[in-house]
Design goal:
Elements (H helix, E strand, L loop, with lengths): L6 H31 L2 H22 L7 H29 L3 H27 L6 H30 L2 H22 L7 H31 L6 E6 L4 E7 L2 E6 L2 E5 L3 H15 L5 E6 L4 H6 L7 E6 L2 H9 L1 H7 L8 E5 L5 E7 L18 E6 L3 H4 L7 E7 L6 H4 L4 H8 L2 E10 L7 H13 L2 E10 L3 E10 L7 H6 L13 H6 L22 H11 L1
Parallel strand pairs: 5-6, 5-10, 6-7, 10-11
Antiparallel strand pairs: 1-2, 2-3, 3-4, 8-9, 11-13, 12-13
Helix pairs in contact: 1-2, 1-3, 1-4, 1-5, 1-6, 2-4, 3-4, 3-6, 3-7, 4-5, 6-7, 10-11, 15-18
Length: 549
Amino acid sequence: MNRFRHARKVLAASMFVMGACGIAYEYTLGALGNNLMGSSHEQIFVVIGLMMFAMGLGATLQKNISGNLVDKFLLVEILLGLTGGISALVIYLAYVYSSSYMLLLWGFSLGIGILIGLEIPLLIRINREYSASLKTNLSEILSMDYVGALVGALLFTFVLFANLSVNQIAVVLGCANLLLALLGLAYFRPLLRHFRKLLLLSCAGAALLGCLLALSEDWRVTLEQRTYSDPIIYSHTSRYQHIVMTRRNDRLSLFINGHLQFNSRDERIYHEMLVHVPFAVASSRARVLILGGGDGLALREVLKYDAVRRVDLVDIDPSVTDLAATHPDLVRLNRGALLDERVTLRPALGVSEGEIQTVSRPSKLAPSLLDDTVYPQARVRIYNLDADLFVRSLHGPYDLVIIDFPDPKSVGTAKLYSLDFYRRLARQLGPSGLVAVQSTSPYHSREMFLCIGKTLRAAGYRALPYRQNVPSFGEWGWHLAWLHETGEPDMKERLEGLTSIGVPTGYLTAALVSNATAFGKRWLDDTHIQINTKFRPAILQYHRQSWRN
């Protein structure tokens, strides 16, 4: 028929869209599983594996499909649009109201995978009517599937995930599938036996997904609030993570991917132990590097020392440092640390130098004494560098490096606790330079804690563990590390003999520091612990074992 002379191009274009949507569905459900479980290396890999298996299952099942193949293909496309479009919201509903959300996540992964697996062979069978040979047919369909997958991966990474929430992405992908079905209905109408039924189902599905797209953010906010005990005052999904801040009375809390980062009622215990312990034994402390700590709370403690002349702050997520510099509640808690004139802010995105920004603070004078002139207090130079790239090139030397990374729950964070990372970091240290490392719980995750210390020692450091109880997290630990060649006297003796902190603190005392290096009998035995490297991130296995137990 002359009407279908372009059928091969239409089918190839359909395969392109399907390939793009298919890979994007995999990433969407994987990202959702990561946000809910906080373990990206597990959930993303498992979801992709399940969907690939289901695609093979769908390809097997399609051999039982006969009759009008165009009808069947468009029905599969409509079902895929509806199933994929509602998947994220239904899984999140289960997360809020029950403990069976992982079963739903895996169930949707299997269902979507089966539908995708049905699509490809059905298209090949349909395209057989318009292709001159089998090799041409396979080339046209499969090549467009692979090209579409590449485009879908790029769109998901740089457009969808950067601008939409996960539930919005799922709905947008569902709408793309339904739009493809509607175009197919219009083009192949003379060949269809159930045109009206398919059209009605497509329109009903489009209306449903349209409502979800319009209302999904309101529903998400309502549902999200049910997962937090305190009212949410800030919620944002950045390129790297989902950030939530809550507040009740004087209690301010920050969550990353659902995991508590600090509680304002006891964060001083954590940050004072992280910062003031190394400062208590540092012979020189003019140049300080903070890796992580975008909330500005560790920086607040560093800036209590008048001897500090330069501070570089490297954090992977600009959204966190922007929040710390602009949100009134967080600025009040970190005492405007990111606005201090001694700070060079380096939000990490790439390797290029950014613009210079002028930072000012409101005056404390009475309004009647002020005019409209803005007086700059500090100039902040922004560099686009992440922590791993930062330590590969010399920016030091630094007298003190404070590492305030989140726990290594994923491949991306595990590399920041690796042998390779610590060795490169050593090049940034000046004479007598010290490193203080956030090292998770020595009680709840003992293997992780020991792994960090053993990896530091394997990288050429001497490492002294210390601990303190932080009520929001339980028993928590850190490591104080320095290079052998610095010639520093025994750090443990210096800490145990400490008589004063030297700056005002809200919790820490010299007596607490003196006792912080004491651990139970054989508690620090690391003979069975593996060293963490980029090629073998053993710390991920320790994380999974420790916190699940």
